[in-house]
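Input record, target 12 of the design panel.
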């Protein structure tokens, strides 16, 4: 999975959770998936539609009621679901897991396996704004998933960011798919 696909996948809050639940064997109907993810109906529905548009999920023909269809993973969805499962199991803490549902958390961590400058991260995530990247970096620093080091050996000191602790586990889970 390339970084653009990862950005697109994580742009909806519950996409990773839905894929991980399907990978772990939760039935593909809305009620069991909704219960497994603990999502709200509106955001769950938006994430489900997003996954269908990405081509990762499809309605299972011949199964389910027209108003309550059953969904299944497509071949590319099965690969994405395996990655999503690895990412979600890397973060067992429920309070920290909420950060994974934010749009830029996983893509930022994917790019910080090695130390990177702010501008390198921004160029790797083309649609991100400076404000969104700065906010994501601060949030990840606050929960100690990211470490900020300042290089003072040059005339103009500059910070570099790298994943640590749980952040490196998420990075490794993503790196297996890239």
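The sequence produced for target 12 reads:
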């Amino acid at each position: 999975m390339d970084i653009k696909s990862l950005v697109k996948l994580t742009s909806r809050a519950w996409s990773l959770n839905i894929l991980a639940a399907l990978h772990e064997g939760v039935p593909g109907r809305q009620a069991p998936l909704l219960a497994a993810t603990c999502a709200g109906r509106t955001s769950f529905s938006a994430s489900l539609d997003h996954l269908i548009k990405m081509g990762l999920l499809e309605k299972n023909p011949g199964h389910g009621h027209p108003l309550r269809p059953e969904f299944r993973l497509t071949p590319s969805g099965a690969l994405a679901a395996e990655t999503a499962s690895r990412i979600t199991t890397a973060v067992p803490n429920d309070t920290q897991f909420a950060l994974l549902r934010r749009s830029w958390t996983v893509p930022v961590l994917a790019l910080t396996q090695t130390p990177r400058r702010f501008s390198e991260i921004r160029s790797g995530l083309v649609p991100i704004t400076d404000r969104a990247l700065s906010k994501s970096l601060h949030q990840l620093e606050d929960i100690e998933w990211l470490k900020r080091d300042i290089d003072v050996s040059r005339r103009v000191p500059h910070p570099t960011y790298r994943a640590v602790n749980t952040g490196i586990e998420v990075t490794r889970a993503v790196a297996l798919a890239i």
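The chain has a mean pLDDT of 88.
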